Amino acid sequence: MPSPHLDIHDIPAEVREGLLLLQRRLEIPRAFSAEVEAEAARAAELPPSGHADLTDVEFVTIDPPTSTDLDQAVQIERDGDGYLVRYAISDVAHFVRPGTALEAETHRRGQTLYAPGARVPLHPSVLAEGAASLLADGRPRPAMVWEHRLDRDGHPREVSLTRAMVLSRAKLNYEGVQRDVDAGTAHPSIALLPEVGRLRREIEIARGGVSLDLPEQEIEAHNGGWTLEFRSLVPVENHNAQISLLTGFAAADIMLRGRVGIVRTLPPAEEWSLEKLRRSVRALGVDWPRGMDYPEFVRSLSPDDPRELAALTRGTMLFRGAGYVAFDGELPAGNLEHSALAAPYAHTTAPLRRLVDRYVLEVCHALLNDLEVPEWARAGLPALPDEMADSGRTARAYENGVLDLAEALVLKDQVGRIFTGVVTDVHPKTGIGTVQVPDPAVELRVAAERAEVGSEIRVRIDAVDVPAGKVTLSRP
């Protein structure tokens, strides 16, 4: 869901009312205190301290067009018969100092929450959209620069992490980069991105990793209003994601070998849940050959086919239970891997938007450069899993609430109209089904006890309450 730079007062009044109600219900802090804002303003003026000069490297960013909180910049070049991937991540720890009100507020928030015109940031805008954001405005920014040296097949040979000043040369967006790649005119800094991305994807497949490439329901802001659409990822987004994954794998490996840090985990799917999924997919009329494992099966599905889209949606049942595990000293017993990625993994590439990444960067920098892990980072590790779990629940509730508001706004003039959509899921106890309608791009919930998942059904809009984000439906 994108976050257009739109003032909340430009949003329709009924949606604005709904957003305020949602924020109040979830107890979301809407504004920073004067003390925090003042600290952030002072932090924005802090001079570099111990930063190397890498401003000669032509970094570029790739983000949605309206994004202004830019965590990552990338530059890729040949390195003998392999590749050198430089990944600059905002050095948020340079600005957020331990013991300050600003630091305490980041722990209170945990992560940025997104909605058009109602983004709730982790950091004040003077940092998140200014001094700490890797904007292409001609001003050097402090960053943590990962350097991944890969062999000709994309496997890591060497990794380093340097605190440095960097200069972003261009703010690019996914669709624009994809057009340039297709035309053979990609920016020189990322001309090799598709090549490296494909190699890393092949390594992921060989490792047994899997990702669900479901169409994303996105809100777009137009002339003070909202519209909805289902958008499939362009290939360059997957290539770019592979660079972030590469960095997350490296961070997890460094911390596990150093026996201090925090990793993102997902328990492996149990056999009974795989069998349940097999039965569910079979009921949809989708073939899942017995000799085909789950990752291979997922890659064989097309979201353009209604039944296969329903099968992909059902596959999300295997991705539940994600969390964080922190450690300092002996590694804890139990699962330390992210089963969907089939490897240990850590969040480290989005410190402007996620609290835990600042800690991971600091720990990895110390371990890779034979430094002492800062006391503030070590002391904060034990509380991070619960802090991130709490903020994650809030983020999911906020995103779902915002989507409910958007759907209500889109449908408010459609009372009495009948839509046809595909049933993507039916709750086994309540009988409530999720129906995906392509135009407008909405997911409606309606009583669907007798409906088959993957089938088409009709639903009628009986009433709409926009501020409550509620759409009342029936089956004609």
Q: H/E series, N to C? A: HHEEEEHHHEEEHHEEHEHHHEHHHEEEEE
Tally of DSSP β-strands: 16
Kindly report the spatial arrangement of strands forming the biggest sheet.
1-6-5-4-3
The helicity comes to 25-40%
Strand content: 15-25%
Average pLDDT number: 91
Radius of gyration: 23 Å
Low confidence ranges: 1-6
Description:
This protein is α+β, with helices and mostly antiparallel strands and 476 residues long. Helix content is 35%, strand content 23%. It contains 14 helices and 16 strands. A five-stranded mixed β-sheet has the order 1-6-5-4-3, covered by helices on one side. The longest helix has 28 residues, at 384-411. It starts with 12 loop residues before the first helix and ends with a strand. The model is unreliable at 1-6 (pLDDT under 50).
